[in-house]
């Protein structure tokens, strides 16, 4: 069995174990697991509106997952995608309501600023990672809280629209990301995410630069002996990962909410990271895993009306998936004689 097939089968087993444990928890609350899972399926794929809703939930998870894949391939664990998403979303909203521009150009400029904001935000932990060797997992996790609170402060105290909720003024119509269907908010962000996934997969598989990034992630000592500037490569990988995270926030603002508000995209960054881990760092595989988590999110809307289960059971299932995948990774590292020579391998 090839390494890729073995890894794929291992991830499938991890998900099945998590679902089985979730079924036990559902039975403990005196509900039928089959009924709950069928309700999830109906809520996610019951009709065209529900399918569009699932794809709408999938879009930010997919783009955040691609951001995580870029970091993982380069040996960097960017856990700050949630914060980069918030900064990117706020930056896009600011361009959307404060900078009148022609239609078409307005969307491009707003998304470009979102990308720059995400990259700029991750540049701080990236600098400390390459300059002082600090662990990017810790620094990027901490940066999430700062990003969420910073955008909340800017929204409430500097850019809050008169009256109403804690949100900025709506963006101008010229900055709207076009919708795909009249009956749903599903927009061109999905197409952007799919194209980005295909491009990143092609980049890592068929370019010299992509190969060198993967080599740094899987065998940093070997890459350094081969003449690759490992520190510079790591810095650029984190910047690219943060830029894609910022893009995810920009798409949410321009295509879904048309403004920035507190908690406008809760948990998408973390779901994207889980999706990337479950796909073993594969951008193509992340399309499938992001769809899985998008279906869980959208399908859970029916749970509290059609069953005795709470929507929070989805959070429990996601946590169980994380535990199962983490256990699998740890067991694999224990049996890998080269595990001590590298940080991550995807």
From TrEMBL:
Keyword Cell membrane among record annotations: yes
InterPro entries hit by this protein: ABC_transp_permease (IPR001851)
Pfam families, A to Z: BPD_transp_2
Main location: membrane
A GO molecular function held by the record: transmembrane transporter activity
Compartments it resides in: Cell membrane
Keywords in alphabetical order: Cell membrane, Membrane, Sugar transport, Transmembrane, Transmembrane helix, Transport
Transmembrane spans: 12-29, 49-72, 84-101, 107-128, 140-159, 186-204, 268-293
UniProt entry tagged with the keyword Membrane: yes
Full protein name: ABC transporter permease
